[in-house]
Amino acid sequence: MTSLDKPTDQQEQGAATDARSATEAALFEAFGGVRGMVETTVPGLLFVAIYTVKRDIHLAAIAALSLSVLLGVARLVGKDTLKHAFSGVFGVAFGAVFAMMSGDAKNFYLPGMLYSLGLAVAYIVTSLFGYPLLGLILGPVFKENLSWRTRNPGRKAAYTKASWAWGLILLAKSAILFPLYFWGDATQLGWVKVALGIPPMLLSVYLTWIFLAKAPPPIDVFAEMEAAEAAERDREKEPVTEPAAQPPRP
Questions:
Q1: From the CB of residue 216, how many other CB atoms can be counted at a distance below 10 Å?
Q2: CA distances from 229 to 219, 224, 234 (A)
Q3: Cβ 175 vs Cβ 94: under 8 Å
Q4: Is the pLDDT of residue 92 over 50?
Q5: What pLDDT sits at residue 183?
Q6: Residues 146-166, buried b or exposed e (16+ Cβ, 10 A)?
Q7: Which of these, 73, 122, 132, 179, could form a disulfide with 127 (CB 3.0-4.6 Å)?
Q8: H-assigned helices in the chain
């Protein structure tokens, strides 16, 4: 390879920047971005604010659910993905129904707390078994599917580290919230849960971005399959040449 063929420092920096940008875009797509974080926090904030002032579970729950529905409709009008549009609505709906049926305002937050705890366990357990959950989530987003498990050990290590980070951060969050659920009152639990809504998520996404930005680039298995299919079609189109006739032997 000549000096002209070797990538320059500027080209390498440009490739690294493109990889980091792609990683950032994929993370925002997978987790809904800052908007998704806000949308999961604001209904809970409205619930605890109304309940703190009015002490009316039904009014607070209906207001939070109505706001969540409006946010979901706004996503649909903006032609966003159905996953981001409905995930927040379902979470708030479960909490609202549970709180109103039980008559305990703290139960508005219980479904989300159980979900976070279960997710923390899933991140840790899948990492222990060599199938880190974050790789299963982000693999299709990066068009690499499960190629990171067998063909890209650097990315498997990054997904494992990131999954451990998510699991431990969510466990720490649960360790703060569940004692408040059992021994605190609804307003204490609500305000602390709102305060712990966005910062842990931002920290988890940031650590994931750091780990993946330093990892090898993903293997685009979709591009590989398309290239293989194109090569197969080209072979099928090649004309079949008949062997030249041999002259008769004397």
A1: 15
A2: 17, 9, 9
A3: no
A4: yes
A5: 93
A6: ebbbeebeebbbbbbbbbbbb
A7: 132
A8: 9-31, 33-54, 57-77, 82-102, 110-128, 133-138, 147-150, 153-183, 186-195, 198-213, 221-237
Q: Does the pLDDT value for residue 11 go beyond 50? A: no
CB 127 within 8 A of CB 133: yes
Are 148 and 159 a contacting pair, CB within 8 Å? Answer: yes
Q: What is the pLDDT of residue 237?
A: 74
Taking only the tens place, the pLDDT of each residue in 51-88 is: 999 999 999 999 999 998 888 888 778 776 656 556 67
What is the spatial distance between Cα 216 and Cα 212, in angstroms, rounded to a whole number?
8
The per-residue pLDDT for 12 is 44
Q: How far apart are alpha carbons 228 and 20 in whole angstroms?
A: 28
Q: Render 186-216 in DSSP notation, one character per residue.
A: HHHHHHHHHHTTHHHHHHHHHHHHHHHHTSP
Instruction: Please give the residue that has the higher pLDDT: either 213 or 39.
Output: 213
| Rounded CA separation 40/92 (Å) | 8
Residue 243 token pair: 């062997």
Predicted pLDDT at 83: 64
Looking at residue 110, what is its pLDDT? 93
> First CA to last CA across the chain, in angstroms?
55
